[in-house]
Amino acid sequence: MHNKKPYVLTRWSIPFAGFLVALMGGFSYAWGVFIVPLSEKYNWSTAEASLPFTVYILFLAFVMVPAGKLQDHFGPNRFLLLALYYFL
Description:
By secondary structure, the chain is an all-alpha fold. The protein has one domain (13-87). The chain has four helices and no strands. α2 runs antiparallel to α3 (46-74) and α3 (46-74) packs antiparallel against α4 (76-87).
């Protein structure tokens, strides 16, 4: 009878997960690419086109402390899965 071990993360899955997290974090800062096209298409000012990014950054800043407490409570692995679920 085969004695199968439960799934264990390989050593390459950790850098891959870190790469994905860094990549997703970088997506938010790509908003500047869309400011000029939005301004031209909808005749918005730069401030109006930047408003979604501003709201996102403020939301991120206010959520950091509660998220850190949740990570301390649940552990980083489970919390990262939960954060990825809500991000996607």
